[in-house]
Amino acid sequence: MGSQIFRISTFQSLQNCRSGYRIALSFLILTLLAMIGLNACSSPEQKKKERLKVFEKFVTQVATHIFDRNPVTIRESITHLFREELTEPVIQKLQNEGNLPKTELGIVKIVTEAEENHTTNQVTVVSTKALGPVEMDVVPFQVTGTVTTQAKGKLEQPKTFSMRVTCKLNEQTGGWPQVVDISGLTTEAKKSASKTSTSTKKHKHRRH
Q: 52-207: CATH homologous superfamily?
């Protein structure tokens, strides 16, 4: 009888040990899988892809905001450019080139002329190409796309644009890119504004 009890007790102990072993093994496997997953997520290649996505999204937004001449959205676009996306030297450069308004009055003028002439536009970014390693703090991008103007409900022929946008992304920029230089910018925005201004003046002259 005592021998039988001992066998049963030993069997139960073995069962408990095996059960505990399985639980420990399962936990170990899950831990290893989690570690592998974390290592994969933080791998240099994965970080490079994520960084590239941030840059591409950013330069797309910058191009859209620079060429925006929609009277409904231009104020918001200018605000993003001035407060978040462009450094002060870049803002001054684009203003001197006539690609950005210099004052609040300049924004009002663009909006007023667009509303009077029933014009708007749509910016489409076609490609963004990194011209250097995205792991670096400063990375230049070639950005190309089209600007389609709509006047009194009629779409004009889309006009292409191309520019080199140099971005900086590190701890100094707070983890979000900033434009430190723009070069080779076609003056599509300037031409659109000038065209609108000219047509408005002609329209006012006819009324007088």
A: VirB8 protein (3.10.450.230)
